[in-house]
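This protein record is not my work; I was only asked to verify it. Where you disagree with what is written, explain briefly why. This is what I was given:
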Amino acid sequence: MTEWVARQLELLRAQWPDLGYDQAGNWVRIPGWELPAGWTPQVVDIAFQIKEEADQPPYAFYVNATD
């Protein structure tokens, strides 16, 4: 884990202490993300990848599928 990734995790955990982290690929999962009124479902888990360095653009976000 690079110093950059460690710092980003520290910042994220300050806001979402129950986030999950997978060091293989630097994936972060934030459970229980509340969506705006009128969306179904109203609460989802989201995941995203922290890139190794600050100057790399984000790749994607993942939102769990619903029935």
Notes: The beta strands are 20-22, 27-34, 43-49, 61-63. Residues 3-15 form the longest helix (13 residues). The chain has a mean pLDDT of 86.
